Amino acid sequence: MQQALLDYTLSLSDNALILGQRNAAWCGHGPILEQDIAITNITLDLIGQSRILYQYAAQLKGGDATEDSLAFLRSEREYKNCLLVERPNGDWAQTILRQFLFSCFQRELYTQLTQGKDSTLAAIATKSLKEVSYHCRWSREWVLRLGDGTAESHTRLVKALENLWPYTGELFKGADYELALGLDPAMLYTNWLSAVQSTLEEATVSLASLTSCFMQTGGKTGIHTEELGFILTDLQYMQRTYPSCDW
Amino acid sequence: MSSHNLEEQFQQKIDQDIKIEPKDWMPDAYRKTNTRQISQHAHSEVVGMLPEGNWISRAPSLKRKAILIAKIQDEGGHGLYLYAAAETLGQSREQMINDLHSGKAKYSSIFNYPALTWADMGAIGWLVDGAAIMNQVMLTRTSYGPYARAMVRICKEESFHQRQGFESLLVLSKGSEEQRALCQDAINRWWWPALMMFGPRDQESTNSDMSLKWRIKRKTNDELRQQFVDMIAEQIKVLGMTLPDPALQWNATRNHYDFGEINWDEFWQVVKGNGPCNKERLEARKKAWEKGAWVREAAQAYANKKNTGTKAA
Question: What is residue B313's predicted lDDT score, i.e. its pLDDT?
Answer without folding.
Answer: 47
